[in-house]
Structure formats: structure tokens, C-alpha cells
Q: What sequence folds into this?
């Protein structure tokens, strides 16, 4: 079983086109020698076109931060998977900020995952519990419910990576300890074995997100069931993000 490490940058609503170009030009040089890690950058929609041109012959993949589940139609302000497919290879779905500020439910995320896969986009599916849920020992129930509903009627995981992102660790500077993260990743892998089979479970990439930085990345990535990282704040500076990709 070989799971290639996946390190993805979620820029959220940050960087103009000009700032994106400057980042990519610097970053490309810093990670030239990295071979064993799949690096994905997910800039805002407005930067995708320019990024796709700049990344064409590089070892850096491009991702979007959201899609609509329909391919086209009267959905003002939305972007479809067909449109993203022209520019990017990945899409982040189910991020806690989308759940919290845009009322995205597991059911809606399930529709978006199906639309993404139909259009041959790879998915980074975010899941995770709140601090209150963790403190009341509901972490595994929440995770199980999110996975079962987000992956309902989806019968393979080949193009889906799961990002475990405890909400209390996102943008807060509070990282889950490697042991805490590993415990949940292990639970997720066992759940995938129950829902699918051993092979799918062993090959599924489960990455960690939540205040990952150049100092804590190494210890997290060393854990057996942690196959990479989804990085927010620390992915905005080329030097810092390259150090995380280099661990
Ligand atoms: C994220 O946005 O997915 C994230 C993990 O953010 P941060 O690294 O800033 O906590």
C-alpha cells in the first residue's frame, strides 16, 4: 500500500491575481526538487485562470475551493464543475467555513461530490467536529455522520481525499496533537473499511488540517494514518508553505 503525501493550500478569500502570480513564481523555485509529495494550490476562483497557465509544466496541481452541483443554469454567482474542470484538477468541498457561513449540509456536499466526480474532478472532502462536540465526546459520532452522509451512494474513494479538520483548530493556532489527530484518522480509516473494504480503506488518503505550520507539520505527517495536510494561513507565504511541503 502506497499513499502519496498530499499537501494542499487553501487560500480562502486571499490574494489578488497579481499576488497569486508573485506567489507562484517564488514558490515554483522553492519546491523544484520535491518529488514524493503531491502539492495542490487552491486559490480564489479569480486566480484560477492565470494560475493554470503558470502551473502548466510544473509539479504543482491546481484546485478550486467550491463548485455548484449543476453543470450550468440559472444560479447567479455560482461556478459549475464543468467550468472548473477547464482550469483545475481538484476541488475542496465541505469546508467548515462553507458549512458555517453558507449553510452547507452533508446532503448538499454529497450532491457536490457526485457532480465533481462525474466531471472527473478530484475531491478534498473536509470534515471535523466543533470544540463543544469534542468536549462532549461526540467526535466520532459527528465524523461518522459526516462521512456516511457526504459519501452516500458513492462507491469508490479513488478520487477523494478526506481532510480531517477539527473546527477548533482552524485558524486558531491550536493544532490537534499528532496523537489526537492520529486517533481520529485511525477511526476514519476503520470506518472506511466498514463502509467500503480493506483495499479502499488502505489506499484512501486522509489528511489533517487545522493550524498546520512549518513547525508542527513534521510531527503530524510522521503519524501512520496522516497522509498529508490541508493548510490555510501558513500556505499564504511561499517560504513557509514550501517548508511544510519539504518535511
Ligand atoms: C483550512 O482553511 O482548511 C485551514 C486548515 O486553515 P488554517 O491552516 O489557517 O487553520
A:
Amino acid at each position: 500500500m502506497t499513499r502519496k503525501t498530499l499537501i494542499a493550500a487553501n487560500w480562502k478569500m486571499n490574494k489578488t491575481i497579481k499576488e497569486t502570480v508573485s506567489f507562484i513564481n517564488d514558490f515554483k523555485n522553492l519546491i523544484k526538487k520535491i518529488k514524493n509529495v503531491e502539492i495542490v494550490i487552491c486559490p480564489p476562483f479569480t486566480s484560477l485562470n492565470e494560475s493554470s497557465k503558470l502551473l502548466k509544466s510544473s509539479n504543482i496541481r491546481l484546485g478550486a475551493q467550491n463548485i455548484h452541483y449543476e453543470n450550468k443554469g440559472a444560479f447567479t454567482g455560482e461556478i459549475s464543475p464543468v467550468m472548473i474542470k477547464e482550469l483545475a484538477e481538484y476541488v475542496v468541498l465541505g469546508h467548515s467555513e462553507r458549512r458555517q457561513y453558507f449553510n452547507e449540509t452533508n446532503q448538499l456536499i454529497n450532491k457536490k461530490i457526485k457532480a465533481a466526480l462525474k466531471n472527473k474532478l478530484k475531491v478534498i472532502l473536509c470534515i471535523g467536529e466543533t470544540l463543544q462536540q469534542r468536549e462532549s465526546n461526540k467526535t466520532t459520532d459527528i465524523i461518522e455522520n459526516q462521512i456516511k452522509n457526504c459519501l452516500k451512494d458513492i462507491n469508490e474513494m479513488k478520487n477523494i481525499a478526506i481532510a480531517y479538520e477539527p473546527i477548533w483548530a482552524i485558524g486558531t493556532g491550536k493544532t490537534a496533537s499528532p496523537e489526537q489527530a492520529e486517533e481520529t484518522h485511525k477511526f476514519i480509516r476503520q470506518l472506511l473499511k466498514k463502509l467500503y473494504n480493506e483495499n479502499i480503506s488502505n489506499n484512501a488518503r486522509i489528511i489533517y488540517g487545522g493550524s498546520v505550520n512549518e513547525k508542527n507539520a513534521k510531527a503530524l505527517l510522521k503519524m501512520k494514518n496522516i497522509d498529508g495536510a490541508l493548510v490555510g494561513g501558513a500556505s499564504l507565504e511561499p517560504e513557509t508553505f514550501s517548508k511544510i511541503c519539504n518535511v
Summary: The chain has eleven helices and eight strands.
